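hi! just following up on the protien thing from before. the input was this:
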Amino acid sequence: MRRPADASTLRLASETPPSDVAAQFEVRYTRILDADGRARAPLPEPFSDPRALTSLYEEMLALRLFDAKAVALQRTGRLGTYPSCLGQEATAIAMGRTMAREDVLLATYRETGTMLARGVRMEEIFLYWSGDERGSAYSGPEAPKQDFPICVPIATHAPQAVGVAYAMKLNREPRVAVCVVGDGATSKGDFYEALNGAGVWQLPLVFVIVNNEWAISVPRSAQTRAQTLAQKAIAAGIPGEQVDGNDVLAVHSVMQRALATARAGGGPAVIEALTYRLADHTTADDATRYRNAADLERARRLDPLVRLRQYLVRERLWSEPQEIAAREACNARVEQAVAAFLATPPREPTAMFEHLFAELPASLHEQRDAVRGRDHE
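and the predicted 3d structure came back as:
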């Protein structure tokens, strides 16, 4: 039987010993364009040049039209399950535009815009989502040959990013690894382990958390009690900050700074980009089952393309004829990619045995030969 506490015990338990603040931290938030497309601060370089701004908008527009076409191809049975990036164009394009060609991207399945900005061909992305692994063999003249393939499992590429960045540091290469994860991935052990390694070894590694508020059907509020996701970097000794992920200029500025610091030997960074997933999680999902329509409508009013276009129009850098011409040019580019994708000869079924081993084990030879035999019957 438990003995009741006496008065002295109760008094000791209620007393709080004097304490000092051992450490203090802060998480900064960056925004340049407000929700109405008005500049809150001077535009960073290189956006003093109007052409740099309009080309940025055109790139975001091309991504949106590509994304819509990919969904249409899936609906008509020509692509497999596809993850739309609708509403996340600003963060994706800004990441791709700020990375150097020699940097290495380790992305999830929703960084289509980053891949396009880094030189991956549209038809290769279509190939990948059709189930053809040739889509990961980036072949364009500006293709990022060392970028990692799309990572579908959640956060498993974060420790891989640590390995990539560690190799860069060992070889004293002025390069940076960029690891992109979603908000759900920050609840995985892989992510925490990667943060710890990057912090301990002060690696040239930038983690970008694309916080679109939903891990499939799980809202951010049900994933963590942390006030921000950026603050998870603090425990690893890494600076963490937030940025308005629907403000392409702000993301560009924050990424540019983090990449420059990492490239110069200043260590890793964590950037939490606050955005919203306007589409379903994938074409196999129905977000109306778990998402509030009013929240979705509020998010639509923060559309990153509308925000930048409002700024351009207000500054007389963009007009309706330019919008029409840009849409026609982007649509033509997308349709050309669709034609190239559909004209690609299909692979032999035995291709499933490729890209798995440097040398196929003897145990799989029989299976491969059996598949080949059935294919030629």
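The first helix runs from residue 7 to 14.
The mean pLDDT is 94.
cheers
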